[in-house]
Amino acid sequence: MRTLINRFGVPLSVGIIVLALIMAFLFRQSSTTYPPGDPSLAWYIDEETGEESVLPSAENIPPLLGKDGKKTLVQAFKFAGDDEKTANTYYLVKYSDSVRNELAKFTGEEMERLNMLHLGQLVRSLEPNSPWVTLRDPRATDIISVPDHSSGPRRQVFPPGKR
Is the domain of 112 the same as that of 49? Predict the structure, then answer.
């Protein structure tokens, strides 16, 4: 062991220091300054009133019934950069009645259901009177693209929950 250290001492020390710096950098990149929240919950916005609410995400396929009994409650996706104190809503999601009816036929997390949940999404920007478009629509890319922050990419933020 001593001959190994004597023979490769400097390159080995440099290698260990470089490895430690890389690990510290990766740890810093993966940490966030805002709480990530509970991914089993989701943000919802009533399209008519603008009121925000938090509901379990797995059981709910928006639009849901709002306080007035109409299907006006849509899922909101919030993002924040590492040094942003509050998360902002960047886009809204709901499903057509036909997709909702098809999804009701599935009981678990079958691959077909998961594909339908993804591809059946209708997305819309927060701009007043902006249209709902499918993910296949070329405009969807602009809607769901969240701009980077000066500190790097913004990350999705979930509502706070019990952990």
Answer: yes
Cα(130)–Cα(46) distance, integer angstroms = 15
- Cβ count within 10 A of residue 158: 19
| Cα angle value 155/160/163 (rounded, 5°) | 110
Distance of CA 87 to the CA centre of its chain: 11
pLDDT tens-digit readout, 84-141: 888 899 999 999 998 988 888 887 777 888 888 888 899 999 998 899 999 899 999 9
Q: Are 18 and 70 contained in the same domain?
A: no
Q: Which of 103, 111, 42 is nearest to 74 (CA)?
A: 42
pTM attached to this predicted model: 0.72
Cα gap 112→116, rounded to integer Å: 6
Query: Do 84 and 55 fall within a single domain?
Result: yes
Q: Which two tokens stand for residue 130?
A: 């902006």
